[in-house]
Amino acid sequence: MSRILITGASRGIGRGLAEELSRRGHDVVATARDVSALEGVPAELRVQLDVTDPASVNRAFAEAGPVDVLISNAGATVRAPLETVPLTEVARLFELNTFGALRVAQAVLPQMRERGSGRLVFVSSVQGRIAMPLIGPYSASKWALEAIAEGLAIETRHFGVDVQVFQPGAVSSGGSERASVFLDEDDPYFPLLGQVGGFRTTPVTVEEFATVVADALEADHVPFRVPVGEAATAQLRARKLAPEDAPFVAAPLDW
Ligand SMILES: NC(=O)c1ccc[n+]([C@@H]2O[C@H](COP(=O)([O-])OP(=O)(O)OC[C@H]3O[C@@H](n4cnc5c(N)ncnc54)[C@H](OP(=O)(O)O)[C@@H]3O)[C@@H](O)[C@H]2O)c1
User: Fold this and answer.
1) Whose CA is nearest to atom 39 of ligand 1?
2) Using the 8-state DSSP alphabet, how is residue 53 labeled?
3) Does 23 contact ligand 1 (Cβ within 6 A)?
4) 92 touches ligand 1 (CB under 6 Å)
5) Which atom of ligand 1 has the smallest separation from the CA of 52?
6) pLDDT in tens, 162-215
7) Ligand 1 near 51 CB (within 6 A)
8) Residue 125 included in any domain
9) Per the domain annotation, does 246 fall within a domain?
10) Tens digit of each residue's pLDDT (9 = 90 or more) over 60-113
11) H or E stretch at 30
12) Among residues 36, 47, 68, 196, which one has the fewest Cβ atoms lying within 10 Å of its Cβ?
């Protein structure tokens, strides 16, 4: 049994992870910006944690006590062309998806390093390796997250801390439907929107995703990158095999 702190556990993937890990007998610390949103989430402890707020992060770890595994899940997405996406939105996305994840890792690492054990888990995406049209700011935040995770993996293994990155394609959590949209019908990029669906892989369910993560946490082998779902695995394999002298376009595109 591990003590596992999850960010963004109020709904979607984070909530599914709390449910699956609690069901397996782990000691879950469920966190969210608004602790009342955690009502009904199975957990040993429910704690307020906003990944963009250093004081909130520090308070949460003081309250949580020793943590074996951090699952950095909180995140959001934006649908907009890179030409016109407001830079304030790009900054907001990085503050949440990228710097927020690093902030919580920084908060938990001292105790893991001193103990000589621990695991940092990052919920990335196929978009941590693949750029998708009209979701470019999100892809950028996840590419940066993967660089941070890989850097952390290299730096912290010396202290007995493992790092894992999970890369789902689409997950039927409702998360992508909550994207902030900066694209209207008059936009010159609007026709591209009709083709973006081809990039979206067949969704895995939240339960399927949570099972993959929970199985990985209980396994002896700790692979660094873990694609989740057949479609995501195929997309990532295609990316790996693609020549680097052209942008990788993950689906047929008439543009
Ligand atoms: N859905 C997909 O298709 C998909 C695919 C690949 C990867 N992912 C990744 O999976 C993760 C979860 O996505 P999801 O689909 O479950 O999205 P979701 O249903 O919208 O859930 C996002 C979670 O993040 C929390 N959150 C937002 N801002 C926060 C902040 N500042 N501090 C702490 N928590 C915050 C939300 O809580 P409150 O708003 O209640 O505070 C919510 O619990 C994200 O990292 C996402 O990029 C999703």
Assistant:
1) 33
2) -
3) no
4) no
5) 31
6) 999 999 999 999 999 999 999 999 999 999 999 988 888 899 999 999 999 999
7) yes
8) yes
9) no
10) 999 999 999 999 999 999 999 999 999 999 999 999 999 999 999 999 999 999
11) strand 27-32
12) 36
Distance, CA 77 to ligand 1 centroid (Å)?
Answer: 9
Is residue 247 assigned to a domain?
A: no
Which CATH number goes with the domain that contains 83?
Answer: 3.40.50.720
Look up tokens 């694609």; give the residue.
227
Q: Which residues are catalytic?
A: 10, 124, 138, 142
Instruction: Tell me the one-letter amino acid at 229.
Output: G
Query: b or e along 57-94 (b: 16 or more beta carbons within 10 Å of the residue's beta carbon)?
Result: bebbbeebeebbbbbbbbbbbbbbbeeebeeeebebbb
Q: Is the beta carbon of 146 within 6 A of some atom in ligand 1?
A: no
Q: How many CB atoms lie within 10 A of CB 173?
A: 20
Surface-to-core class of residue 174, CB atoms within 10 Å of its CB (0-12 exposed, 13-18 middle, 19+ buried): exposed
